[in-house]
Amino acid sequence: MDCLFCKIIEREIPADIVYEDDHVLAFNDINPQAPTHMLIVPKRHIATLNDIEEEGDLALVGRLQFTAAKLAAEQGFAEDGYRVVMNCNDHGGQTVYHIHMHLMGGRRFTWPAG
Ligand code: AMP
Ligand code: ZN
Fold first, then answer.
1. Pocket of ligand 1 (CB under 6 A)
2. Where is the active site (predicted)?
């Protein structure tokens, strides 16, 4: 499949992988927007948030969030706080069509997002 993140999962393209289990992979974003900026992706290809199915995908999406919290604790900014973002389609700013959770920490973020 012609998907950048599937290729990273399959080790066809290198990435700075920070966490892996049977269901998810996390790696450092190539263009970090914070001192820590990781992407957490399901190993199963799901193109957008609109493609999540009630049958089978809900635990996987919960696992993305759970992994973000674990990595935030590991990175040492869980208590200070952090930002998680999932962009959907054009208006959401999605550029890679394999769902991913951005985990950003190590600085203060503003709200609302741009
Ligand atoms: P989004 O705009 O939400 O789809 O986020 C895609 C993210 O993937 C961006 O933050 C990019 O910097 C990041 N990205 C693109 N190519 C790579 C790559 N080869 N390795 C790591 N991160 C990447
Ligand atoms: Zn994919």
1. 4, 15, 27, 29-31, 39, 87, 93-96
2. 100
d(CA 112, CA 85): 12
Largest separation between any pair of C-alpha atoms in the chain:
39
CATH number for 4-105 (one of 1.10.286.20, 1.10.10.10, 3.30.428.10, 3.30.470.20): it is: 3.30.428.10
Helix (H) or strand (E) run with residue 66 in it: helix 54-75
Q: Provide, rounded to the nearest whole percent, the portion of the chain with pLDDT above 90.
A: 98
Question: pTM for this one?
Answer: 0.98
Summarised one tens digit per residue, pLDDT across range 54-65 is 999 999 999 999
Average pLDDT of the residues of the chain: 97
Q: Single out the residue of 39, 37, 40, 41 nearest to residue 106, CA to CA.
A: 37
